[in-house]
Amino acid sequence: MSETIKGFCLHGKEKITPASTIPVTSNTSVVAMEIPALQEGEILAKTLFTGICGSDNSASLGKSNFDWVQRPRIIGHEFSAEVLELGPGNHGDLKVGDIFTPLAMLGCQKEDCPACSVSKWNLCASKEIIGFHRNGGFGQQVVLESDRVVLLMDGLTPEQGALVEPLSVVVNALHNKANIKPGQDVVVTGCGIIGLMSAELARAAGARVAITGIAHDRDKRLKKAKEQGFITIEVSPENSLSDQLKKGIVDAKGIPFGTKNGQVDLVIECSGVPPVLTEAISVVKPEGDICVIATYPKEVAINATHLTRTSLNMRGSMGSCRDDYMVAQKLMATGVFPSEAYINQYSFEDITQAFEDSIKANNVKAVIKMN
Ligand SMILES: [Zn+2]
Ligand SMILES: [Zn+2]
User: Fold this and answer.
1) Which of 2, 247, 269, 294 stands 20 to 30 A from 201 (CA)?
2) In the predicted structure, residue 2 carries a pLDDT above the cut 70
3) pTM as predicted
4) 3-state class of 132 per DSSP?
5) How many alpha carbons lie under 13 Å from residue 319 in its C-beta half-sphere?
C-alpha cells in the first residue's frame, strides 16, 4: 500500500487546565502510522467512523486519572471498522469485508478470573482497553484481536456503529445498576454525551428527566437537551442543583418536578466533577438511588452518615459487556435512541479541530469519518 496511513496520537502528558496558555491539543498530533505484522488471533481493519470520548479528552489534557496510559498512543475506543485481513489463527465466522465495532475492554479470559469467568470483561483487573493499552480507532487502520469484534446489526449504519460503545455503557448502568422505574423523577448531572444518552434511556424507561449543565453548556448541550424535550437546569456555585430543586422546578406542562422538599428518586452522575457527586446525596429521597458512571480526577467527599440515615443506594457502573452492545445496537436500529440528534460529524482532516471543539464542549458528540 503506497498511501500513508495516518492516526491521531497522544504523545504528551502535560497538565492542561482552563488557565493554561497552551492549546488544548498540545499533547496530541496527527502522525504517519506503521501497521505491525498480525499476530495469532489478530485482524487488520479499516476504520470507518470513530467517536471522541470524554476519556480521550481527559487523557489529552494530561488529567491524572489517565497518567497510566503509555505514550505515544493512537487513541480511540469508540469506532466502526471493516475487516481488511485475517491474521494467523481461528477467527470463527469472521470474514474480510465484515463491518463491526470492537468491545472496548478485552478481559484476560483466564478461567480463574472472577470477572472473565462470568464474561464480565469490563471488571477484569487486567483488562486492556483498545486505544489506551494498544493503538485504537483514531488510526485510519487498526490491528485488534478478533475476540473483541461485535458485528454491526442489520439496519445500523457505520456512523451509528461509532456510538454503540458509549450507548452500551449507559445501557449497563441503567439496566443493571440504576434501579430505574416508570414514573420516577430522575436528575442526570452533566450534559456530555453519556449524560444525554442517560437522559434518553431513562425517559424510554418511563421516567421524567431533568439534566444539568453549566453556563457554558447553555447554547449547545443544554439547548440540545431542551430540544429533545428534557427539563434543563443550569447550575453554578451560587445557584446549586439542591437550591433550585428546593425552590421548585416544573416540567414543560407546569407540573412540579421532584418532591415538595426538592428531592428526586434517582441521580445519574455523569459530570465527573467531585462537588457534583458530593451534592447528589442531598437531593435523593430516602431509599433513593445514585448511579455513578463518571470517574474523578481526585477523591470525592461524601456525607456517609446522611447516606446511612437515608438508606440510599449508591452504585458505580464500569464500562459494558457484549450483551450491553447488543442492546445498544437494537436501541439505535429501532430509533429508541435517536443517534442522529446528537452526532456532529467531522472529516479526518479536521480531527484536531474536532478534539478542540470536544474538549471545549462546543459540540455534542464528535464522530470522525476516518477514511
Ligand atoms: Zn469512552
Ligand atoms: Zn480477567
Assistant:
1) 247
2) no
3) 0.96
4) coil
5) 20
